[in-house]
Amino acid sequence: MSMVMTILEAHVSNEHWQRFEQVFNEATKELDPGIVQTFLLQSEADPTLWRIVTIWQSRQALASMRQSVVTPRGVLMFRGVGAEPMLSVFDIISPNAANDSRSN
Fold first, then answer.
1. What separation in angstroms does the CA of 82 have from each of 2, 13, 85, 102?
2. SS3 of 30, please?
3. Is it true that domain 4-93 has CATH number 3.50.50.60?
4. Quick one: the chain helix, strand, coil %, rounded to 5?
5. Model-level pTM?
């Protein structure tokens, strides 16, 4: 069972950047079941381009979340600042375990 990455991406007007970051930070204080990690990203080349990248334990974990809610939380975050995100889903083929070995 391999992990999965979702990427929600949209352009956010600069007057909404601070609010968007606040909403993301508040909403991710506790992660939903099945989420390993999530990140809020802002493009350096185009600062209006934002992404929410989420690592899921498995495709089943992602499917369970999608079946349990009408609209995923990340989509609602983008819509709350007037942006309609595009979703991409990727299978994680070869995760880098270097961080795990540093704990020794």
1. 34, 8, 10, 41
2. coil
3. no
4. 35, 30, 35
5. 0.88
Q: Cα dist. 45→18, 37, 42, 82, 91 in Å?
A: 18, 24, 9, 21, 26
- Distance CA(97)–CA(95), nearest Å, equals 6
Q: Which residue is it, tokens 């309609």?
A: 84
Of 101, 92, 8, 88, nearest to 55 (Cα)?
Answer: 92
pLDDT given at position 104 = 44
Place of tokens 């983008």: 78
The domain locations on the chain are: 4-93
